[in-house]
Specification:
Blueprint (H helix, E strand, L loop, with lengths): L21 H15 L1 H8 L5 E5 L11 H19 L3 E3 L3 E2 L4 H13 L9 H25 L10 E2 L3 H16 L3 E11 L4 E2 L5 E19 L9 E6 L10 E4 L4 E10 L10 E4 L1 H11 L1 E10 L7 E3 L10 E6 L11 E4 L5 H9 L30 H10 L3 E14 L7 E10 L6 H10 L2 E3 L2 H12 L3 E2 L1 E2 L10 E3 L9 H14 L2 H5 L2 H5 L8 E3 L3 E2 L1 H6 L1 H6 L11 E5 L6 H13 L6 E5 L2 E2 L16 H7 L2 H10 L6 E2 L2 H24 L17 H23 L2 H30 L5 H21 L4 H11 L22 H26 L9 E6 L2 H6 L5 H5 L5 E3 L8 E2 L7 E6 L3 E2 L6 E2 L12 H9 L6
Parallel strand pairs: 1-2, 1-24, 3-4, 8-11, 9-14, 18-25, 24-25, 26-27, 28-29
Antiparallel strand pairs: 5-6, 5-17, 7-8, 7-13, 7-16, 9-15, 10-11, 10-12, 13-14, 17-19, 20-23, 21-22, 28-31, 30-31, 32-33
Helix pairs in contact: 1-24, 3-19, 6-12, 10-11, 10-17, 18-19, 19-20, 20-22, 20-23, 20-24, 21-22, 21-23, 21-25, 22-23, 23-24
Length: about 950
């Protein structure tokens, strides 16, 4: 007779659903955390602990978040939360960068659409619109960041346009002014003719650009080299527009040159037979090819002998009636061109330095908007972007063009307007890298800083070693002004602390607008007359703003400390925020504002391509959240090796969602298995537990060390891989699989079942807490299933203290042998199922053959339970032919036989004693369990 024993079996029971429904569920957690004041609760409950301060690199407040923002902020959140759960007071204050060109550009775009002239708008009105634009996007981005589960002091962030922040930035600049590091000088800088301002290196990106190339002949006027009489010196350049600014030619003193006499010309050549040209022999063949001529060497000339040679500008007689000296330049090579480099000191760094060294003045040729000044012969009013044809025509008409062509090469562009940039020598404000030993201090600070990954150190160090003085001025309107007065008579900036104090007081009270609106005499006081001073209206490079955040955030908030424990941004910030913060702090405090720097790579699509709207391969974090939920995006972040570029796309997100499903099912299974578990059921003596439970606790102890080390190293992809493997291989496919029978069928007070549930409880607590920094919503959902309450949160807990004595390497070695044998048996069972020898594994009684020493190692382990069979026989003998074996488990074979007996109606094992007990159709174990259970069904 068949009896229904279902009511006596402890099937898993939980309200934790298999389908997460994260997009709908997560906002509820956010509302709950907001209501309970989770962040403030953390601060109160963490008072007195060691602080961990991750200083937020401010994103720019000018649009919706992109996937790079999501990666960055989620990684910061995971680190902050993991430090909090290790027992620290992890304070996270988000911030925003608000000044600068991107916002100003947006407001100007609106003006252009309406046909307005930005320069005709009062400064105060324009700045007000910029401020309102930034405020709008701060609110949008704050909401989007919070939706990603990022926890921080969102009600009290820092903002670079706050009055106090602006005042503090002015104070920081004042320190450089007072110590003599800040000076005004003319130097070549990267200039945007579209945005009419100098750009910082971090605002520059490189794209392929097609340039017009020209080979130009400079007639020799005089030279100590007799062979140069009547010859032309040939140069090659990719910037024809710089020809009006030419004032010298550079040669390599150690290079060899030669005078070539043209012997033959092809159709279309611009030279004629008999022309004599100075070229570097290494490049002469290429010049002849593009110039469509052949030539022979008339005289060899050493570079050093060219000193004192004077040439005429190729447009002499048309307003360019000056001599062009030949100067030795260390930067000249024979790699490309002609071996001679034309020098336009207004449009190149090497050009500027070489001409200044020889007392050659810098001509002012190109205006802010990229047009030539009115006094420039032939080209006045023309734009540098469009002037190449006119230059070629003029040179051809003068008989001085040898050839022209096209070249596709990597060229600097503005990251905002996407327009190509030019080098332009202008009067700018600089912070000296040498005054007050700023470069040396910065290099020492780099050596004293921890870099993750370590390669970041060398990258930043090489930049500091080679960088020129820091150009901190911009010719814009929306920013923190350079609050400096310059003596009109001497040209020297006014260095007076009392004046600075009056300026900063006004800025702190009414914002930086005060500098533009107030009477300058109110700042100068009674000691100086306003008419004697020029008031500077340039604004600071925004990198100076963000580089100063450490001063008005870390130093002035009681909940933080200086220096920060960590700065974290993308690898491009070695030339951006890491860089400017380092220089600002070293220049004012003598050390870096951070103890450690972590960098991550960029986010690419699934094919490894850079994301762009034109390719249609962008992934918006808002779309991911709406489709999958924020926890899926967070899981993707920690599953990738952020030190390198990461990939994301539809297929990767599907895989991530599948991984999440498996992790969620692990939690769900444990919650179901723990239904009704209380402290009274727990086994407190670990030594009394079965070996399998002690092995699980051993693995927990191992993992605890891995988790804490990964949190220290910030290697979260390793942490994820270890946790995922543990849940998938050690738990789901091994421990849970084996103990399912004991959980379902053992009596409530059975020692094995109690030990299993005790370990399950320990597992659950540890795993949920380890997952909490990245699966913030799922961990909370699971935690509340076991710990309900309005004021309860897993994010108010810390990682469990795992006893060190749970680690048992000898036991682990024994169970590694058990798992090897089990793998062979499971393979044999799968083959038997496929061959229809058995249906379920409980119908089997395998014969296992293994070396005696291996059997001795696993002696005492119930291998039938481990392999989920109704019985098993272990034989210390060689496996017979046809036995199932694995190549990596030497000497072990298995043959599947069917189990003898009847199927137990409760546990489904096939055993000889089924039907011989007081309850019909059950085995002895189930008979005792049913008897022991109140309300058992007969």
């Amino acid at each position: 007779m068949t009896v229904d024993y279902k009511a006596s079996v402890f099937l898993p029971k939980t309200d934790f659903p298999m389908r997460a429904g994260l997009p709908k569920q997560e906002p509820g957690h956010l509302e709950r955390w907001e209501k309970m004041g989770l962040y403030a609760r953390q601060r109160r409950e963490s008072k007195g602990r060691d602080k961990f301060v991750l200083h937020d690199g401010p994103p720019y407040a000018n649009g919706h978040l992109h996937i790079g923002h999501a990666l960055n902020k989620i990684l910061k959140d995971v680190i902050s939360r993991s430090q909090q759960m290790q027992g620290k007071d992890s304070v996270y204050v988000p911030g925003w960068d608000c000044h600068g060109l991107p916002i100003e550009w947006k407001i100007e775009e609106e003006y252009r659409k309406k046909g307005k002239d930005k320069d005709a708008v009062p400064v105060a009105e324009f700045r007000r619109q910029c401020r309102e634009f930034a405020e709008k996007w701060i609110d949008v981005q704050r909401s989007e960041f919070k939706r990603l589960g990022v926890l921080g002091d969102w009600s009290n962030p820092y903002v670079t346009m706050d009055y106090f922040a602006e005042a503090q930035t002015v104070r920081e600049l004042g320190k450089f002014l007072m110590n003599g590091s800040l000076y005004r000088g003319a130097k070549p800088v990267m200039w945007s003719v579209v945005e009419k301002t100098a750009l910082a290196e971090a605002e520059i990106e490189y794209h392929d650009h097609t340039s017009t190339t020209i080979w130009v002949r400079f007639p020799v006027v005089s030279s100590p080299v007799a062979a140069l009489a009547g010859a032309d010196v040939v140069i090659w350049t990719t910037t024809p527009w710089t020809m009006p600014g030419n004032r010298a030619l550079a040669y390599g003193a150690a290079l060899e040159y030669a005078v070539y006499r043209v012997t033959d010309v092809a159709e279309g050549a611009l030279v004629k037979a008999g022309d004599r040209l100075l070229l570097a022999p290494a490049l002469a063949e290429e010049v002849m090819k593009v110039g469509k001529f052949t030539a022979e060497v008339e005289a060899a000339v050493s570079g050093a002998d060219l000193a004192g040679t004077l040439c005429a500008h190729p447009l002499r007689g048309q307003g360019y009636d000056f001599d062009v000296p030949m100067l030795a330049g260390e930067f000249v090579t024979a790699d490309q061109g002609t071996g001679i480099v034309h020098q336009a000191p207004g449009h190149g760094e090497d050009d500027f330095m070489l001409c200044r060294e020889h007392g050659i003045a810098v001509p002012e040729t190109v205006q802010d908007d990229g047009t030539y000044a009115a006094h420039i012969p032939l080209f006045a009013g023309q734009h540098v972007y469009k002037v190449a044809p006119a230059v070629i025509e003029a040179l051809t008409g003068a008989g001085r063009l040898l050839a022209h062509g096209k070249l596709v090469h990597s060229y600097p562009h503005s990251w905002r307007s996407k327009a190509p940039l030019i080098y332009r020598t202008t009067s700018q404000w600089f912070i000296s890298m040498e005054a007050n030993d700023l470069r040396a201090k910065a290099l020492q600070a780099i050596d004293d800083t921890r870099f993750v990954p370590a390669v970041g150190k060398n990258r930043l160090r090489s930049m500091i070693e080679q960088r020129p003085d820091w150009c901190v001025s911009r010719q814009r309107t929306w920013g923190t002004p350079i609050t400096v007065f310059v003596n009109k008579a001497t040209g020297e900036p006014l260095r007076d602390q009392a004046v600075l104090d009056r300026i900063t007081a006004a800025v702190e009270a009414r914002g930086a607008d005060a500098w533009f609106e107030d009477n300058p005499q109110s700042f100068l006081g009674d000691s100086y007359k306003a008419e004697d001073y020029e008031q500077v209206f340039d604004v600071l490079d925004v990198w100076f703003d963000s580089g100063s955040t450490h001063s008005f955030v870390l130093e002035h908030r009681e909940d933080l400390h200086w220096p920060a424990d960590l700065y974290l941004e993308g690898s491009d910030q070695h030339r951006g925020w890491f860089h400017s913060s380092l220089l600002e702090a070293c220049g004012t405090r003598g050390r870096a504002p951070y103890n450690a720097v972590l960098t991550h790579g960029f986010t690419l699509d699934e094919q490894g391509r850079k994301m762009s709207k034109s390719l249609g391969n962008t992934i918006a974090p808002q779309d991911v959240v709406n489709e999958y939920g924020a926890d899926i995006l967070r899981l993707w972040v920690i599953s990738t090796d952020y030190a390198n570029d990461q990939r994301i796309g539809p297929e990767i997100l599907k895989q991530t969602a599948e991984t999440y499903r498996r992790l969620r099912n692990t939690l769900r299974y444990m919650l179901g298995a723990l239904d009704g578990f209380t402290a009274d059921e727990a086994v407190t003596d670990v030594a009394a537990m079965p070996e399998l439970e002690r092995w699980v606790l051993h693995r927990l102890a191992e993992l605890d060390g891995v988790v804490r080390q990964c949190c220290h190293d910030f290697t979260f992809h390793t942490l994820f891989a270890e946790l995922n493997a543990f849940c998938t291989s050690d738990l789901s496919a091994f421990y849970f699989d084996i103990r399912k029978d004991a959980l379902y069928c053992d009596a409530p007070n059975d020692p094995v079942r109690r030990a299993c549930r005790t370990v399950m409880n320990t597992l659950f607590n540890a795993l949920v807490k380890w997952m909490a920094p990245f699966l913030v919503f799922t961990a909370e959902e699971a935690w509340l299933c076991r710990n309900p309450g309005e004021e309860v949160s897993v994010h108010l807990t810390t990682f469990d203290a795992i006893p060190a004595d749970w680690r048992d390497d000898a036991l682990a070695e024994r169970w590694e042998a058990v798992r090897k044998v089990r793998r062979v048996v499971l393979g044999a069972l799968e083959g038997a199922r496929n061959a229809k020898v058995i249906g379920a594994s409980l119908q089997a009684h395998p014969q296992v053959y293994a070396p005696a020493d291996l059997l001795a190692q696993i002696d005492g382990v119930d291998m039938a339970d481990v392999c989920i069979t109704s019985g098993i026989t272990l034989n210390a003998a060689d496996a017979p032919d046809g036995a199932y074996a694995l190549p990596d488990v030497a000497g072990v074979g298995a043959v599947v036989e069917t189990a003898s007996g009847e199927k137990c109606q409760r546990c489904w094992k096939v055993l000889p004693d089924v039907g011989s007990h007081s309850h019909d159709g059950v085995c002895g174990r189930c008979d005792e369990a049913v008897t022991a259970m109140a309300g058992a069904v007969a």
